Amino acid sequence: MSGGLYGVTTNRTYRRAGFGAEVRRGSRPAIVVVDLTRGFTEDSYPTGADLSEVVAATTRLIEAARPVEVPVIFTAIAYTEAEASGDAVAWLRKAPGMRALVEGSEAVAIDPRLPMRPGHDQLVVKKGASAFFGTSLAATLTGLGRDTVVVCGATTSGCVRATVVDAVQSGFPVLVPRACVGDRAEGPADAALFDIQAKYGDVVTLEDAVGYIGSVPAPAAPDAARRSHRRGDST
Question: How far is CA 53 from CA 42, 112, 174, 205, 233, in A?
């Protein structure tokens, strides 16, 4: 019998501490695609790795969202020339390889294999790991009436984990489809997924996530909604 990533003793300790309960799934989810830009999804960039499988899995999830009009929000890390070359961003002193992620460069472009719809899907530009830190993402999700966040993207141990932590701290239950997140190395990714599953969200299969997204009721057509209002069916 498998003891999981860290063994039976660790699993028993976490269960005793009361971690690992399932999250509540709402009926109005949003998909947040974290930093699947070319600088992270292509191994030709120093910051990147070949995340072709993650891109393909995320594409499948996005395509399931379109018929039921589940919002898809993309994020990208991008620095101005001054930020990239200076010392104002403390993170870049720790991770100088990310100085290549300059506004307007190919490195910060959303991976072209993803079915992003410019002018329809929102793009959040960020400077830190979490998609919530210093951005309007929480307000956007609230404004859209969303009650659950499905997080995809890269890297699992960095920006994905940080985004998941801030999502649940902002009041949103979180799902993370394992196939839709990727990293540069397996060890850090596995550790991050273990931590997410224990404390912050549910790590699920792609099939589970696709089924959940596809089960969301499609919004009523505008004409039908107006007719319902005239009949007095809505308040």
Answer: 11, 14, 22, 14, 46
CA distance 38 to 108: 6
Q: Hunting for tokens 């501490």 — which residue is that?
A: 17
81-125 per-position pLDDT tens digit: 999 999 999 999 999 999 999 999 999 999 999 999 999 999 999
Strands (E), 10-84: 29-34, 72-77
Kindly provide the residue ranges of all beta strands, DSSP E only, lying in 59-173, ordered along the sequence.
72-77, 122-126, 148-154
Task: Give the tokens for residue 37.
Answer: 């830009």
Catalytically active residues are: 159
Which one, of 108, 116, 123, 113, lies nearest residue 56 by Cα? 113
| This prediction's pTM | 0.90
Determine the distance from the C-alpha atom of residue 72 to the mean position of all C-alpha atoms in its chain, rounded to a whole number. Answer: 10
Selected residue with higher pLDDT from 17 and 69: 69
Long-range contacts of 40-46 (CB under 8 A, 24+ apart): 40/154, 40/155, 41/111, 41/154, 41/182, 42/111, 45/100, 45/107, 46/97, 46/100
Helix (H) or strand (E) holding 161: helix 161-169
pLDDT, one tens digit per residue, over 19-29 is 989 999 999 99
